[in-house]
Amino acid sequence: MARNKIALIGSGMIGGTLAHMIGLKELGDVVMFDIAEGIPQGKGLDIAQSSPVEGFDARVTGVNDYSGIEGADVCIVTAGVPRKPGMSRDDLLGINLKVMEQVGAGIKKYAPKAFVICITNPLDAMVWALQKFSGLPKSHVVGMAGVLDSARFRYFLAEEFKVSVEDVTAFVLGGHGDTMVPLTRYSTVAGIPLPDLVKMGWTSKEKLEKIVQRTRDGGAEIVGLLKTGSAYYAPAASGIQMAEAYLRDKKRVLPCAAYLSGQYGVKDMYVGVPTVIGAGGVERVIEIDLNGAEQKMFDKSVESVAALCDACIGIAPNLG
Ligand code: A3D
Fold first, then answer.
1. Which CATH number characterizes residue 18's domain?
2. For ligand 1, is residue 104 a contact (CB within 6 Å)?
3. Does residue 251 form part of some domain?
4. Does the CB atom of residue 148 touch ligand 1 within 6 A?
5. 10 Cβ inside 6 Å of ligand 1
6. Which of 107, 128, 180, 211 falls 20 to 30 Å from 137 in CA-CA distance?
7. Does the reported pTM lie above 0.90?
8. Contact 131 CB / ligand 1 (< 6 Å)
9. Rounded Cα gap, residues 13 and 232, in angstroms
């Protein structure tokens, strides 16, 4: 059987990390695309030269022409600009929307059967625009944010409880932004929900609230430390988990920015919700019960995503 072909649209910090991880995991051959000449070629060659040492078989090449992504099974999109200190994700909208238009046209022409994972910020609006620009099925265009936000939440909780990260599950819903909704009720240590752990004296409500806030600010904390860009190791690992779920038909239950057509009372928008990802792409959107406070937070998050989509329509009326 031929190897899978994975196209990385954008060969910056996340793109390079993705290519390396795909090699190490032998998920398939990689084509790195970028508008910057030499960057995808140079990174591709560097990563390919690590393959004899690491013992993986994968072609890793770089291109500046969309024809190079022809027939890709998966496209992971990181093209655009990241945040600098003091910037919000939303400040990137104008520049990255134009990038999504080009990327959408490239994927439509050369990889219309691909499963497309968008990572470019502001995530929920960019994945929505990318689906419209590319015209690919909604089940095959999805945004990565929830896996990363949940991973941050899980990591902080594992540190607080001094248990393995493997035993902590967590759900973060809503848009990828300051209004994201970490769901403590549905987050557990080996099946024990967080509110029970508070009752058991493992932590306090106040400490939990601080962890929730640190999760919301997780991206900004790293931008503040790096000063020249945003996080890339954990975002890449999260994108890989979604690609692997699709390529290996794992039917993983993962929080992703998925197209909603009425679920949670939301129509024609991408928002972070629990999904099942398998060979059919986003095979199911799972509708969990939200209590009053959670629903309020979710609605607020949806409102801010809707405002971003409106801003996109203001720039590109054909999206409306
Ligand atoms: P960076 O290292 O700057 O890489 C972006 C790459 O995109 C650069 O190599 C550019 O040359 C390239 N590029 C720019 N315009 C185009 C174009 N029109 N076509 C093709 N390539 C282009 O950034 P990064 O890899 O650190 O981050 C990429 C994106 O991911 C940014 O928008 C970040 O904000 C976003 N991001 C999202 C998350 C989420 O959780 C959703 C997390 C971290 C970063």
1. 3.40.50.720
2. no
3. yes
4. yes
5. yes
6. 180
7. yes
8. no
9. 6
ipTM, two decimals: 0.99
Q: Which of 168, 176, 181, 235 does the annotation list as catalytic?
A: 176
The domain of 299 spans: 146-313
Q: What pairs with residue 189 in β-bridges?
A: 168, 192
Long-range contacts at 178-181 (CB < 8 A, ≥ 24 apart): 178/88, 178/216, 178/217, 179/297, 179/300, 179/301, 179/304, 180/145, 180/149, 180/215, 180/216, 180/272, 180/301, 181/294, 181/297, 181/298, 181/301
**List of residues 6+ apart from 133 with CB closer than 8 A:** 100, 101, 103, 104, 105, 108, 319
Residue 318 belongs to some domain of the structure: no
Q: Which residue in this structure is represented by tokens 């902080």?
A: 156
Residue 150 CA to ligand 1 center (angstroms) comes to 21
Q: Which two tokens stand for residue 72?
A: 């890709």
pLDDT digits over 237-291, tens only? 999 999 999 999 999 999 999 999 999 999 999 999 999 999 999 999 999 999 9
176 catalytic? Reply is: yes
Among 9, 21, 35, 233, name the best residue to mutate to test ligand 1's pocket (greatest count of ligand atoms within 8 A of Cβ): 35
Count of domains observed in the chain: 2
Q: Indicate which residue's Cα is closest to atom 22 of ligand 1.
A: 79
* Residue 88 vs residues 180, 217, 262, 279, 313: alpha-carbon distances, Å: 14, 11, 29, 34, 20
Name the burial class of residue 307, with classes exposed (0-12), middle (13-18) and buried (19+) by CB atoms within 10 angstroms of its CB: exposed
Whether residue 200 sits in one domain with residue 103: no
User: Mean pLDDT for the chain?
Assistant: 96
Pocket test for ligand 1, best of 21, 34, 91, 254 (most atoms within 8 A of CB): 34
